[in-house]
Amino acid sequence: MNPFPSLRVSLGLALIATALPAQGGEHLLRFHYKEGTTGHRRMHQQVSMQMDMAGQAMSTEMDMQMFMKFHVAAVDDQGTATVEHSIDRIIMKMDNPMMGGISFDSSDDDADAGPMDRMLDMVGQTITAKVDGRGQVQDLELPPALANAGMGLNMEETMGQMMVILPEDKVSVGDTWTSSYDHTMGQMGKVKMNVHNTLTGVDGDSFTVKQVLNMTMGDNDMGMNANIKDAVGSAVVSLGELMPKQMTMDMGMTMGSEDGPMPMNMDMTVKISLDSTTEPVASSAPSTSQPTSQPTSRKSDG
């Protein structure tokens, strides 16, 4: 999913996956975009982190909702779509001993995100991308406010991680294919992510997959190494829409550095879910407020 689209399969999705009949035979899975299609998604991310830094224990808790919209502006003869993607609203609550308590809703005109104020600049900005029939991002155009947003984010990586990359060849229920991508983590360098997708069901234009994630961390300035303990999720995908209709990923991870500039160890759990929405209204997750009106987009001053 931020930071970002980041990374226990819920009972509800497990039931959905079981309910979808698995059609026999092989399937060539390809998105078939339709010009004018618009969809809304809500990504909910919960992070709990325990850290020991040079002998000092710290705890961080974060709960964030991000409401997104995608619009298919055009489709060429090869089936590649020009897609406009925007973030309509961000609701976030975080407790961290170094940054203090942060709680904001970007739909409030006077929202104060404190040290996370760069996130407010993301709201209302439109990213234009070209996406092929397998869901791969081929080209990306960023508005100036995002091109220099910092925060260690690569927006092309972030968009790619929110989609299920389809296999090159035909697959049958039970088959597994792997999609790989790099994820930039600021001073911690690049991390290679491998997502192993297993087709669990096909029902007309929709299919379900089980996803298992593993990660390899490369050389970095902080001397960090990482180990994913559990990273399992699932997704329900419609071939007529750009982003999954539903997705979950629950992950446990340990990170540490004994030889870096500052010895540290970290134990983290991350829960991410993505679901369809009709408009950017809040769920029951903790937030500064629970308004039901349409959000007011905050524009970047730069």
Q: Could you tell me the strand content as a percent range?
A: over 45%
Largest sheet, described in full?
Answer: 12 strands, antiparallel
Shape: globular
Q: How much helix is in the residues?
A: under 10%
Radius of gyration: 19 Å
Topology of helices and strands:
Layout: H1 11-19, E1 38-53, E2 56-75, E3 81-96, E4 100-105, E5 126-131, E6 137-141, H2 144-147, H3 155-161, E7 176-184, E8 190-203, E9 206-217, E10 225-238, E11 246-257, E12 264-277
Antiparallel strand pairs: 1-2, 1-12, 2-3, 3-4, 3-5, 5-6, 7-8, 8-9, 9-10, 10-11, 11-12
Write up this protein.
It is a single chain. The chain starts with 10 loop residues before the first helix and ends in a 25-residue tail after the last strand. It has helices at residues 11-19, 144-147, 155-161; strands at 38-53, 56-75, 81-96, 100-105, 126-131, 137-141, 176-184, 190-203, 206-217, 225-238, 246-257, 264-277. It is mainly beta and 302 residues long. Helix content is 7%, strand content 48%. A hairpin with a 2-residue loop joins strand 8 (190-203) and strand 9 (206-217). Strands 1, 2, 3, 4, 5, 6, 7, 8, 9, 10, 11 and 12 form a twelve-stranded antiparallel sheet that branches. It is globular. The chain contains three helices and twelve strands, in the order H-E-E-E-E-E-E-H-H-E-E-E-E-E-E.
Give a brief rundown of this model:
With 302 residues, the protein is mainly beta. The protein has three helices and twelve strands, in the order αββββββααββββββ.
